[in-house]
Design goal:
This is GAL3A protein. By secondary structure, this protein is an alpha/beta fold. The chain is built from eight helices and eleven strands. It has one domain: Class I glutamine amidotransferase (GATase) domain (Rossmann fold). α1 packs across α8 (207-224).
């Protein structure tokens, strides 16, 4: 029987929600791994709405659960309904929605707060010793909730201009966590905490390399499940 995995979204669209390519890559690799997936998102208002064509704020309000339903093809549940006891693992794709809607990292950095349902979900899986997969910016959720854990967001220096957000690694270290430098096609496994991370779009890389890196994360999550 395939592993039961919960996928948590933060909206729809890189600048104000979940990164669509990352979410899709995770779903493809989970499907290939024979996993049974259910999708969740918090039923909250987005911090902001971005016109992705213009790259500028839009004067409107949107709901994270409603927007995430676009990616889930309508088959989605309120994150408040997620029970860790019903799943073997949980995965969080990245995107600015993670840093805006699931927590306030986009505004407050390492001093951010984490959404109550997101925090309780992470704590429930961690307490049950079930694996947690995170990619792109979402490893900061683990860094905030689990001091001392090990994660990667890629490199801690902007190597060849490929890691423009390398300072995120320093902020993770300031939170008391260990940042492990990895390439885009790799993931890191914190065996003690069963946390698996990969940098995805934190690196400027061809899409297939990002897709492959997410694949290594999913594979490691399924191994630990």
């Amino acid at each position: 029987m395939g592993k039961r995995v919960a996928l948590v979204l933060a909206g729809c669209g890189v600048f104000d929600g979940s990164e669509i390519h990352e979410a899709s890559a995770a779903l493809v690799h989970l499907s290939r791994g024979g996993a049974e997936v259910k999708i969740f998102a918090p039923n909250i208002e987005q911090r902001d709405v971005v016109n992705h064509l213009k790259g500028s704020p839009a004067e409107e309000k949107r709901n994270v659960l409603v927007e995430s339903a676009r990616l889930a093809r309508g088959n989605i549940q309120d994150l408040a309904e997620l029970k860790a006891s019903e799943f073997d693992a949980v995965i969080f794709p990245g995107g600015f929605g993670v840093a805006k809607n699931l927590c306030s990292w986009a505004v407050d950095g390492k001093n951010c707060s984490v959404n109550d349902h997101v925090k309780s979900t992470l704590q429930a899986f961690h307490s049950a010793k079930k694996p947690i997969g995170l990619c792109c910016i979402s490893p900061v959720l683990a860094a905030k909730v689990f001091p001392g854990c090990e994660v990667t967001v890629g490199q801690d220096k902007n190597v060849d201009g490929r890691f423009p957000d390398a300072e995120t690694a320093s902020a993770i270290v300031e939170l008391g966590c260990k940042h492990i430098c990895k390439n885009v096609n790799e993931s890191h496994v914190d065996k003690a905490n069963k946390i698996v991370t990969t940098c995805a779009f934190m690196c400027k890389a061809p899409l297939h390399e990002i897709f492959d890196g997410i694949g290594t994360m999913v594979q490691e999550v399924l191994k630990l499940a």
